[in-house]
Amino acid sequence: MESGAGQPPTARRRWPGEQTKSAPSAVGRRRWPATAATAASQRRRRRDERIAGRSSLALDRPGRAADASRSYGPHAARRAGGSERLVTGIVPFVTALLVVQGAEVTASVDRTRLRVGEELMLTIRAHTRAADPVDITPPTLNGFAIVGSRDMTEVAISGGAGSIRTTVRELTLRAQQPGALLIGPVRARQGGSIVATDPILITVDSAADRMTSTLSPLARSLLEATPAPVSRRADKVALTMLVPSDTVFAGQQVDLIAAAWIPRDLGERMRRPPLLTLVTPEGVWAYPTAASSGAALSRQVNGRWMDLFIAHQVVFPLVSGRLIVPPASVEYALPVTFSFFSREERYTLRSDSIAITVLPLPPANPPNAPTNVVGEKLSLDLQIDQTSTRVGEPVEAELTISGIGNVALWPAPEPGLRWPTGFRSYPAQTEMRLATDAGRIAGSKTFHFLAVPDSSGNFVLPEVRYPYFNATAGRYEMAAAPARALAVAPGAEPRAARVLPPLLPARGDLPVDRLTWRFGWQGWVALLVVPPFIALLASRRRQRAPAAAVVAAGPELTPLGKLERDFLAVLSSHVSDPFARDGDGLAQALRAAGVDSAVADHVKRLRDRLRAARYGPRGLGDATELAAEIEQVLGVLGAERSGGVRRPHATLTVVGILLVIAGNVCAQQSQTPSAEALFEAGALRAAADSFAARAAREPRDPAHWYNLGATLFRAGADGKATAAWIRAARLAPRDATIRRALRLLPAPDPVTEQMLSVGWATPAEWGLIAAVGWVLLWLTVAVGGRQRIVLLLFGAVAIGASVLGALEWRRRAQPVAVVIADAAPVRAAPYGGASAAATVQAGGALLVGRGYGPWIEVHRSDGIHGWVLGGEITGL
């Protein structure tokens, strides 16, 4: 015990003009002596100044802490005032001004007396009617450490008085030193108005054992076993760094202790306690340093008392490897002489650095459940505020993780709370509360969830598992919360004022889609190449015809001339080479074309006789006999006397194939009316599942997607309904019912409207129109058409349809996703604690990119770029 313990306090020097107080007070008043110039004014008023800590310390409690002079609870916001009469006159005006322009701020604590190491709750409330944000400045907390915080905002609407917004901030404080500690005023700023509360006085009694509340058992035993330095010098100060172990796992708690041994004789000469400083190493999660206000341990060495002063910090290594703890330091000052006004000589002592080996966590077992959570005695608790609800009413659930470990870094369970199908879930706030368990960091972390059921029935929330690594036992363990049952009763329609769209009968695949699917890419290539090739062959045949067959010999041909024209045409159809047809190799060419040898020789002789009859001397041969012989040869070769030569065209064959394929329609499968009956009965979840199954089985039928969207629209899932109706519109863009349904859910922003726009026709329809124009263009060229207007018309149809089809295909090929949650915050980084740069409402469109776990990178042309959860969007 100190030498001054148990003695009455010395009388305090009384200032001139100061009166003796009737009772001791923790807050004294100092009266300043009046001068001659202000003597008259001093008689009318007194000037007081509040000074904390003027009363003597009480000796009837450990630690010599003083009793509070009065109870400090919630105090209203204070403002400086003048005389009492003036304050009384302007109170109504100031109150009205605060209500209109500023905020009403109060600060309160749950208790005003506690012990060192215990916690109290400081609650700050700010009430305002204005729309401007309230900026709350935390108070000064000398002697306290913040171990937890919670912020929330409430809005109450009270009729014609408008809305009242209440901002609440709760701070969990832990007392670190005994005495009368003062929590400073809380200041709130709103616009140009600033209000402040009165300070709050807290009485903190000294703890029976300081180390019991700040050190873990391992660290405390290590400190007790530390030998005191052996030195014959009375002014020798020793500083050392202590750690429980030099090998730990990543995420395991490490206690860093700086211990300074100071001789008591030397400590009594110090005017203030020594200052111990711990430097936080890199690569760790550190909690605030706790330094002892007095001696934590005392020992007698060689007849002299040595006092131990410590500084303690808890850190958690984040990565494996070598962790270097920087040197600690102790600073103290000693007066040169025993005079009160003597100067002080300062001393600084540093310790050595310490290396700690951080081991990585062993492989998880099973390998498919890896985790980085390190803790001990973790427990998982799932609570539902009510086990029965109705459709459309929100259900709150709390998932609490409790145990020993670094509570701040405990993530939410993956894949999280799995709500049954038909529930729309929304993550809510996360609460964290720190505590100590035998000197180790412990506490709880609560994840709040909100869900809204869309369908009635009995549901079960599945079991939640939370794997973690127990560093003390050196093995992986599992915390689990059992399944919870939830009953949902039927409720009123969530949006009764809406116009419910009718259902469409099943259509099956559209004819155009079936045609393009069966045609394949080989058919499109053939359609692109074959018509020009056929037209080229037809034009070459027309050019090779003899001039006699093209140019008329006169206004009217003789019977022999007509037969000669037909004869030459038949020769052209059998022998395409003009040199072989006009030379001596005609018979050989005819035999090569499959004509009988005797007929070929006769045809050659007949050609020579025709040339002699036309170009030789007149009178040679008989024209009648020659004409009869030509008719006979034409009959043998298969030509008709009065008709032209029949030439089959491949273009007509291609058109015929297209018509045959288009007419081959498969029979549609009959659909059972079960989904429609469920929709009419109000079983929306079951109806949506049935329509979704149909859409997955026949994805080319627009009626299935439309009916699925109508069911989701009736259930209130606007985002999912928008995605389903956009798919239906892409399959049947000119359907009036689908267009009318899309108008029920307008786009939330112009960028979404542009990204989800659907053209007049599908890319397959545009391709079919371009193919028809292309075939007609070359068919016209093949038959010898020379009208430029017709050629330009068919060419413009082919090119225009191709361009429009390519643009529509490019628009649909973009990786577009639709927000299906009520609101999707776009966060700056792929984790839940990142700030949200923007929020996209339900039905909004986004362009998706790469993925990172459950997060997907999204961007838009209006500058939105970030990460959203994959469950909040769906692709088209």
Q: From the alpha-carbon coordinates, what is the Rg to the nearest angstrom?
A: 48 Å
Question: What spatial form do the alpha-carbon principal axes imply?
Answer: elongated
CATH topology term of the largest domain: Serine Threonine Protein Phosphatase 5, Tetratricopeptide repeat
> Which CATH first-tier class of the largest domain would you pick?
Mainly Alpha
User: What is the CATH-assigned architecture of the largest domain?
Assistant: Alpha Horseshoe
Mean pLDDT: 75
- Ranges with pLDDT <50 over ≥5 residues? 1-101, 208-212, 547-555, 639-673
Spatial gap, N to C terminus: 79 Å
Query: Helical amount among residues, as a percent range?
Result: 25-40%
Name given to the CATH homologous superfamily of the largest domain: Tetratricopeptide repeat domain
| Number of domain units | 6
So how many helices? 21
What amount of the residues lies in strands? 25-35%
Largest sheet: 6 strands, antiparallel
